[in-house]
Amino acid sequence: MDDSVFLKRTIVKHTLWSERLQEDRKLRIYLPPGYNELLSYPVVYCQDGEEFFNFGRIATIAGKLILEGDVDPFIIVGVEVNVAVRTQEYAPFGARFDQYLACFAEEIIPYVEQNYPVRRSPNERIVAGDSLGGSVSLHLALRYPELFTRVLSLSGAFYPLTLEWIEDETDLSWLEINMVVGLQERDYKTDTGVYDFVQLNRDAKKLLVDRGAKVDYREKDGRHLWGFWQKELPESLLYFLNT
């Protein structure tokens, strides 16, 4: 099939006022081919929404998966972030972390569900993120297990505090997580220090498995960049949407 077919898409932009964050938050919503508001759809919520669309090419990937018949149609909700405060919102030690989690679960989810026919059971709601976005996606599930049980993590930034919080959990048998990390991510400089993302992901995986979580884990050649995550995104989406 001609790739131009996959580039045709419907993306709707919304601006939501967040009481929790006391500011506007922008959403990008992908509606699948043949979208019909009388039907209902699985939904993928993405941190770093703008980057998932622009650099991850998630809309094109979704169109290809759907039109080639691998998966049933699904909706994507990209939640945009101001890069200047991203660590403050996504990192567990961030000053806006609690407010962001509350905004996501208590404002964004209800807003989307009021406006679009997304399915509301946790097993048809996936939360996805790259780097700290993968970490905050896991934290959303840990704080709101009634909403999120399926996490898609691309090179998750599972910093020591996140690992401590996972260790504090006793039963994670309700959680399902797909994790991928690049083998060239061993010495990555961030705004809070230099981290070995391979070891952090291995440590997180062990803690999660030990607590009963269902973990699908892979290590591939790749760097801490969207070029790597874009290539891995189809496999990660298929893991959840093909089952």
Automatic annotation (TrEMBL):
It comes from Paenibacillus durus (Paenibacillus azotofixans). InterPro entries: AB_hydrolase_fold, Esterase-like, Mycobacterial_A85_antigen. It comes from the Bacteria. Pfam families: Esterase. This is Enterochelin esterase. SUPFAM superfamilies: alpha/beta-Hydrolases. The lineage of its organism: Bacteria, Bacillati, Bacillota, Bacilli, Bacillales. PANTHER family: ENTEROCHELIN ESTERASE-RELATED, IRON(III) ENTEROBACTIN ESTERASE.
